[in-house]
Amino acid sequence: MNATVEPARGGSGRRELAYAVLLCLAGAGLALWAVTRTWVVDSGGRADPLLVEEGRTGGQLLPWLPALALVGLAGGGAVLATRGRPRRVLGGLLTLLGLALAAGGGYGLLGDLGDPVARQWPTLTLLGGVLAAVGGGSTLLRGHRWPAMGARYERRPSRPTGTGGPIEGGGTVDAWEALDRGEDPTVR
C-alpha cells in the first residue's frame, strides 16, 4: 500500500508546482498587461472642435505597478529553479508582491486619480495581483515538498585533464611548441 501512495504524492507535487507557477505567471502577466492600458482620459477645457483628449495608463499613474509585475514574472519562473527554504522565501516574496499589485489595482478603483477611471483595467490589475498572491502563498506553504529541477540542469564539474593544456598529457607550452613545429595541437 505504501508503494501506491508515494507516486501519487510525487505526481501531486508536480501538479501543485505547475499550478503555483502558472498562477504567479498568469497573475503577474495579467497585471502587467492591464497597467499598460489607458486608465484615465483627460479632456482639455477647450471648445468642442478643439477638444483634446489625452490618456494616461496605469503605469503612468502608479509607476511602481509595471515594475512589480515584471518582478512577479521573474519570480514565477524562479520558483522552478529553487528548492527547499529558498523556494519558501521566494513564495513569501511573491505573496507580498501579489498583494501589492492587488493594492495598486484597488487604489485605481477607489482612489482619487483626478478624472473618471476606466474600471476594467484596475479590476484586472487587482485580479492579477490576487492570482499572483495565491500562487506565492501556495509556494510559501507547500513549496518545500515539491520536486526540484533534475540533475541534468546542474552545472557539471569540468573533467580534469593532465596539466590542463590542449595536448593530452602536456601543458600550454607543449601546445605552443607544436604550433612552432607546424603541427595542429587540437588534432591529437
Characterize the structure shown.
Helix 1 packs antiparallel against helix 3, helix 1 runs antiparallel to helix 5 and helix 3 (64-81) runs antiparallel to helix 4 (84-110). 61% of the residues lie in helices and 6% in strands. With 188 residues, it is mainly alpha-helical. The relative contact order is 0.16. Strands 1-2 form a two-stranded antiparallel sheet. The longest helix has 34 residues, at 2-35. The N and C termini lie far apart (57 Å). The protein has two domains: 2-45 and 53-153; 158-188, no CATH class.
Structure summary:
The chain is mainly alpha-helical and 188 residues long.
What's the arrangement of secondary structure elements?
Blueprint: H1 2-35, E1 38-43, E2 53-57, H2 58-61, H3 64-81, H4 84-110, H5 120-142, H6 172-180
Antiparallel strand pairs: 1-2
Helix pairs in contact: 1-3, 1-4, 1-5, 3-4, 3-5, 4-5
Q: Notable features of this structure?
A:
disordered N terminus, two-stranded antiparallel ribbon, 188 residues, 6% strand, elongated, mainly alpha
- What's the total count of β strands? 2
Largest sheet: 2 strands, antiparallel
Helix proportion range? 55-70%
Query: What's the oligomerization state?
Result: single chain
Low-confidence spans: 1-8, 161-165
Strand order of the largest sheet: 1-2
How many domains make up the 3D coordinates? 2
Structural class: mainly alpha
